[in-house]
Amino acid sequence: MKRIEKIYQYLESHSDSNQIEQQLNEGTGFTAASVAEALGILRNNVSMELNELHRQGKIVKVMGRPVQYFLRATLEEALKRPLSEQELEFESSTACLQEMTPSVTKRSPFDDLIGADGSLKTAVEQAKAAVLYPPNGLHALILGQTGVGKTLFANLMYRFSVHADRLPDSAPFIIFNCADYYNNPQLLMSHIFGHIKGAFTGADSEKEGLVEKANGGILFLDEIHRLPPEGQEMIFYLMDSGTFNKLGETERKRKSNVLIIGATTEAPESSLLNTFVRRIPIIISLPSLEERTAKERVELLTYLLSSEAHRVNKPIRIEDEAAKALLGNTSSGNIGQLKSNIQLVCAQGFLNSFDKNDEILIDFKTLPINIKDGFFHFSGRRKELQEISEYLEPYTTILPEPNKTLILSDEYEPNFNLYKIIEDKAAILMDQGVEDDDIKKFITMDIDIHLNSFYNKFKNTIQTRENILKIVNEDILNFAEDMQLRIEQHLGKKLNERFILAFSLHLTSFIKRVESNKPLKYTNIENVVNDKPEAYEISCEIKEDIEKAFHIRVPNMEVMYLTLLISSLLKEHENARVAVLVAAHGNNTATSMVNVAKKLLGEGLAEGIDMPLDQSPKIVLDKLTERAKEMDMGRGVLLLVDMGSLTSFAPVITERTGIPVRSIDMVSTATVIEAVRKSNILDMDLSSIYDSLKDFRGYGGYTSKEEDALSPSKPHAIVTICATGEGTAEKLQEFIENILDSITTDPIKVIPIGVHEMDTQLSTLQEENDILMAVGIEDPEIQIPFIPLERLFASDGEEQLVSLVKQRNIFIKKSETNRITREVIENSLSEFLTYLNPKKTVDLLLSFGKKLETYLGYTFDNTFKINLLVHVGCALERMVLNDGLIYREEREMLDSDCFNALIKTNHEIIQRMNLSLTEDELCYIYDIIISFEEQTISN
Question: Fewer Cβ within 10 Å of end Cβ, the chain: N or C?
Fold first, then answer.
């Protein structure tokens, strides 16, 4: 029995609903110490498990000294009512006892809203008046910028209605965002009011609308300004008479007693009909984050940090400068942006502390550059900054205690939706008459790209089961874990690490669509999955399991979608590239070369084995054979060696293992980098990599026979490979031509071809052209570099294309980066500086950057240079104001070459203005530069 189960069993066996009131009065409920003593378990382990049981909603926590715990079921029995998720923690024994005394007035849901007695006091009073006004309340409109909490506020109005007994607990509260269908007014109106059979093309049956579903409750229409005029008229007629009609009906005979709450980011007088606005007696304005008091802004920051601390079950310690940066970086997104930024920095902090048991540290120097810029939002706003500083300690620690959750879920959190990916692509391609094989390639690629992008979005935070539970519920996660084991056992193959997340999200989306009666539009993809019989077989079994577990009917076509999802997530699809194995004599020769390649290009499928000079060849061969078997991902191994017997090992390893192995001698760091680049980034096959590298002697140039044989008269060309050679291929051709126009004046043709004609046309094209590379959906597997379509559109795709063009000694134009850099810096400074003149300061900053580059011995890229020099400009203004940053970390960098370069640059450039950056400010600049250097190496 697990420890947590043992503790819960003990609580169950020793709980008595008749004793709870006495225990609360005497303070004798379960405590970590009492349970630890009874079970002989360490107190800190008991405390951890009790907190986990509380997080799971199985026990109730009563704060005090010591903290007491009660079984939820037992307390509900004593109260004679179920507890909500917000009632699983009480501030004290007295607060819990008050729940057991009916005469005591309960806390209003608005009482936990930050600012309810401050900047939101008027809004709260209006909301209460709207809900309490007899007989059925008053319709209301909530105004406010994006991210101020309009949905949360409407949710609290609903909960207050229940709290005040104006609505029963079972009353519906329905949220609908009018922007979801604003491009299709007919569909929008159908969702809100419903339709009868035959009301429009495709209306095969009668449909209930949200107005009907919300009868007896509240309907919240977000972005209500998206309603067309006829929709607004139908809403205000409902407000006036309580009656409405579905689409296709001529008379308003249907009735619905529903309170309408609208929300908009627009000015009502310019975005809504006057006749509509006149019928809304209560208009509630919510302030932006900047309009909230300093105390409230810090409380909001602390509340959101508390949520993250509870999720990761670690204390969070935040530096005051970092807190100010977070609060300043919300000019457009308000609380929503603050929440997003906090989750980002906490995720990074969590990642940094993952292998440790200590706290998550958020300090200014480790913040992303764009969030650091938030600190400079307060430039010239000293009073505001001073007010916020009064509520911040130099370091504030937030413990992982659960806080009051004001809203249980974000209705607008985007769902993982496999249906949309396949529906959109397959329908378009089928309409164009594309062959099934080509459709399969397109769909598989799209799924892979989507899964990669979605997983990458979460991969820094989804490190534990607890963090996955932030996105999906526990029942679905448990089911996904069971399915992973079954699929792996059935197929005899491993699923990659994304399966749990992707399958859980897909199943969540499917169940949500079924429960909301949304039509399940399937595209017939049966032909696309014909070559996946094993995945299809297990998908049929999973269909039955879903029906049993979740009590819903699963259509047969869903099996096809599950088949594609499983196939896309098999481990064999991940890292299916050539492995690079480096072997060289010496203590760290091979590993050193591989480490350089990995730092430059990221974690590729490459390893180094260092060979002592006195080690026997047989031991070396055995070691290489075992490592080749471990590394092979189905595409073979490229063995890079230095000399001696190592050069003859490739055919022996192939004979022993059956793995294709090719060997290149005279290995150098440049050769390793180029091999990893072609395997990891260009996804070339073993023969292509071998042929391109066998005569490679460094980046000074190739001496390949193939290149020497090329006729100078052959025109340069890039081949694009798509399904048909038309449509998408032409768009791809246009995209690449635009890149080429911007980087070179040399003529380079872009030739689109279809997959089906690739084999027949490529040989002819190679005879007539100097083909620099192929780009598209399928590797032609000839001796030219290949850039997959998804790689081209990745963040570094354009750089890869330019790099390959440069290798042919093609003239590359110099861009006007200096002029652009100057303009961007000047524009940025004009927003941040109050006292210094940006036009005059920018020349000084550019000189600062140039001199610093000279002392450091390398050149910054433009993005980093802009961020660095804007930071230095703001630092100069702080010097004018005598309000410099304070550096609180260890100053180990003071004797470093980089810091000495900063001191010299400061002395030679900045002091021309009779200013000097303080040592604290230089320490921060040093951290920024070091961060850039590390990022450059890792990339």
Answer: N
